[in-house]
Predict the structure.
Amino acid sequence: MKYYFRDLLTLLISLFILSGCENPSKVGLDVDPEDQIQGALIDDLPIYAVTVKESSTSTKSSYQHPLGYLKDPTIGESSASIQLGLEKIFADDSRIPANANIDSAIMVFDYGMDFFGDSLNSTTTVEVKQLSTPFEFNKDYPSDATWAVEADILGSKTLNKFAYRDSIQIHTVISAKDTIIKVGPQLRIPMDAAKIKSLFDGNIDSTTFASNTFFQNRIKGFQVSVNKTAQVGIGGIVHLAINSNQNGLMVYYKLPGSTDQKIKFYSVSSQNAVSSLSNDYSTAVTDQLANPTGNFETVYVQAPAGLRTKLSLPTLASLKDQNLIINKAELIIYTDSDATGTIFTKQAPRLTLYREDIAGQRVPLPDGDTRTATLPTGEVRNIRDPRSFGLSFGGKYDKDKKSYTFILTSYIQDILKSKTNNSTFYVAPASNVEATIVPYLLNVYSGSRAVLGGNSNENYKMKLNIYYTKAN
């Protein structure tokens, strides 16, 4: 009987506790972090926004190279070409035999992981031309360099879309036999067999052709680009992940009296390829580029190495002496549907934020710091700010809300505590290739763009929400 009354007492106490809860179903459950924010809200701080040009960069050794032509009706035209040098065949004769019958010659590139544009309603013609001067293997060419090419088209291919996700079946030579194999997504450009045979002329003295200097001066290198005049539709920018093991020029041929197919493979690596980027911007963009201290209702970001938006908080310092503890600060950036229009509405799937140090070098915000360092031993160590939110920092495009959200809690707190005096930072497209980090360096791994509403935009207002409490 004693145990019966003790169990009954325990039950009654439990009922009293549960009856005191407004929502018993939430007992023991995690609360949404947004619901935990308490205190006052500041959401009316002015944010100055202006579009500025990205700086030029070197794309040598990039693991993805942009290629394409995008006729953006809002921002303007952007094009990307690839310049490359072929390696001579060190273990064999680099010449094509003079009596060879070429079955096919193909320029082969692996597709990368990114495409931005209109792949459904566009037709693109990719062309290969020879460079007018030799490609220098050890030179860091800037991304805005211009290249002289020969008039002859050595190869071309017209595409209804860049099939950068589709594996394909190809014919190749294995043990002297024509074999069909399955490979990953590739861009394969048929080349003019006669012109290729002439370029790698088997009548030239073998010792002469074996000279690396002679080879580079004769072959020079190639440009892969899009024929702007022939393009139908908006087009787009695709990326190629150049792999020296299977990318380059492949020449399939047979010798007289033989049915055995042979192959010459002249490889190209990411170290021997660079991108060239050019833009012809709309009036709306050029007006801002000519006024870098202005403040605009609509701003633009674009990759690769195109446009970024400079943001500044001119009145934030006025909060320094108010003993505020920042519980949460978030920046919400909306896309401007009015400025984007209805012709091409695709927005960048991801953006990033970063700032510049006193030397003008790009550094991450503390909330989005995912940096690592490789020690001499090969060990990879985190050197990120301990307050970093990692990938939860934000930047993914919310298609329903048509917005991007970032957490700036530590960055705002650092400014109010005078740990940093720089309240200017930048927003730019981020690459989905860099999926495990928050990128902050110049982006050449994406071709995306976004049309964004500024802080003075009536319908798509950029907003900084600061939730705070006052210290005693």
The CA atoms of residues 329 and 466 lie 4 Å apart.
